[in-house]
């Protein structure tokens, strides 16, 4: 059951890689395969929530030799979220026709990498799947093959090569310190290991994931890449690939190194605050929608850092909830920004309200969880500071999001009659906006899953 989601997208990616993705039948096959992988992940999630975490070793190999897989609430949540974003982005692009023969297969390979790293229980396998996702994302960044897209692909390749090298160094250090690559063993041995080498290893891991997330001061690459790619690829990068950073900080920080995470809390608070303010102020000063959304992405991940710094059941659940909501918001906004018309403007407004934390959009849940996290912080001064920071960040988000709305959609209208493919894209974006509102009106399932995922971290999972 654990292998099924990964197996579906793997065999589909390999099979479709030799076919011409510009043909409609190939695109339909890729869509069906990705939808089947998402359905299998949903089924796996139901079983995990009902019966608890599941473990297996692929291929029937003994433990420590084969690829160890583990499905818990945290991993399944991020796997399902990423596959859903990939499916929406794939359908969005295919409605207008794939521009290269490799696009559907590349999206499937991206699904392989993301699904594998979210469901693996081995640190080195995490690195392998991480590289699969990075390679597929690098090629996708150059999708369209225009000069700005090729330039974005080059920047993305160089920066993520740096992140990959740092991550590989950290994995080697983990093995040196703990004598194992199994995550559960690493978690148990790190608690009794000397603090200094574990802290240094954790710092290298943080930098590697910080580069991937685009945290301040590792943000320098993100605006150039996000503004140089097509809307569907930007949605993949911000709504699916960026989940690696959030998940990595949660899994390795809160799950494997909780002691070191607690010691580093002041640094996380400082960096999270810097990311929120820097990203918001830069977004306010920009005019192009893709630039505003790129700098907004820098600011939004700062909230995840703040929630992690506070820690505990409230902080971890808030970090998970905000990461999920932010991924959905960014997918909606990047796809809507590539279209015009009052209907798309309405969908964009929903996403804007969600980023600003205005009910009934789902972003209100994330902001409310962050307010609760701020009130749970130690010290009255810290509590007041975090609450004011969340309020200020939300106010700045409201300003820059509706600056974009005014410039892009206020007087755009529907314009001349559009092709059926564009009308279908609009319907897809409206459906995504409906999902954001539905999550805000019926938040109980998302809140429950986030709490279960936080429990998995606090129990030392994986």
* End-to-end C-alpha gap: 17 Å
Oligomer: single chain
Q: What spatial order of strands do you see in the largest sheet?
A: 1-2
Structural class: mainly alpha
The count of strands amounts to 2
Q: Are there runs of 5+ residues with pLDDT below 50, and where?
A: none
User: How much β-strand is present in the residues?
Assistant: under 5%
The radius of gyration is 21 Å
Shape: globular
In round numbers, the mean pLDDT is 85
- Number of DSSP helical runs: 20
Q: Helix content range of the residues, please?
A: over 70%
**Largest beta-sheet details:** 2 strands, antiparallel
Order of helical and strand elements: HHEEHHHHHHHHHHHHHHHHHH
Description:
With 462 residues, the chain is mainly alpha-helical. It has a domain at 266-462. The chain contains 20 helices and two strands. The chain has a two-stranded antiparallel ribbon with strand order 1-2. Helix 3 (73-95) packs antiparallel against helix 19 (420-441), helix 11 (243-256) packs antiparallel against helix 15 and helix 15 (312-337) packs antiparallel against helix 16 (342-356).
């Amino acid at each position: 059951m654990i292998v099924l989601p990964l197996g579906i997208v793997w065999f589909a990616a390999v099979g479709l890689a030799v076919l011409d993705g510009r043909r409609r039948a190939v695109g339909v096959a890729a869509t069906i395969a990705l939808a089947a992988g998402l359905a299998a992940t949903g089924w796996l999630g139901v079983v995990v929530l009902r019966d608890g975490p599941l473990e297996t070793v692929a291929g029937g190999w003994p433990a420590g030799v084969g690829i160890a897989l583990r499905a818990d609430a945290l991993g399944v949540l991020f796997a399902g979220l990423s596959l859903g974003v990939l499916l929406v982005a794939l359908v969005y692009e295919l409605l207008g026709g794939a521009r290269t023969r490799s696009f559907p297969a590349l999206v499937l390979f991206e699904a392989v990498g993301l699904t594998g790293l979210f469901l693996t229980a081995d640190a080195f396998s995490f690195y392998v799947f991480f590289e699969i996702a990075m390679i597929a994302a690098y090629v996708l960044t150059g999708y369209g093959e225009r000069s700005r897209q090729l330039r974005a692909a080059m920047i993305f390749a160089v920066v993520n090569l740096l992140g990959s090298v740092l991550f590989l160094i950290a994995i080697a250090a983990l093995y040196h310190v703990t004598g194992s690559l199994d995550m559960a063993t690493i978690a148990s041995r790190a608690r009794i290991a000397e603090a200094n080498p574990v802290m240094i290893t954790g710092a290298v891991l943080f930098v590697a994931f910080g580069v991937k997330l685009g945290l301040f001061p590792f943000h320098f690459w993100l605006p150039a890449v996000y503004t140089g790619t097509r809307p569907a690829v930007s949605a993949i990068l911000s709504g699916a690939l960026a989940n690696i950073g959030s998940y990595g900080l949660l899994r390795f920080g809160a799950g494997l190194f909780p002691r070191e995470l607690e010691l580093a809390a002041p640094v996380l608070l400082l960096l999270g605050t810097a990311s929120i303010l820097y990203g918001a102020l830069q977004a306010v000063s920009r005019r192009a929608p893709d630039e505003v959304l790129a700098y907004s992405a820098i600011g939004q991940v700062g909230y995840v850092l703040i929630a992690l710094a506070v820690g505990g059941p409230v902080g971890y659940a808030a970090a998970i909830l905000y990461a999920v909501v932010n991924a959905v918001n960014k997918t909606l906004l990047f796809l809507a920004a590539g279209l015009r018309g009052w209907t798309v403007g309405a969908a964009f407004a929903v996403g804007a309200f969600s980023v600003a934390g205005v009910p009934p959009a789902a972003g209100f849940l994330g902001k409310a969880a962050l307010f609760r996290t701020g009130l749970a912080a130690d010290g009255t001064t810290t509590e007041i500071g975090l609450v004011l920071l969340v309020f200020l960040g939300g106010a700045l988000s409201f300003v820059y999001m509706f600056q974009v709305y005014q410039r892009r959609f206020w007087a755009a209208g529907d314009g001349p009659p559009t092709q059926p493919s564009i009308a279908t894209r609009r319907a897809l974006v409206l459906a995504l906006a409906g999902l954001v509102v539905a999550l805000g009106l019926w938040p109980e399932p998302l809140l429950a899953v986030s709490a279960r995922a936080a429990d998995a971290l606090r129990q030392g999972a994986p």
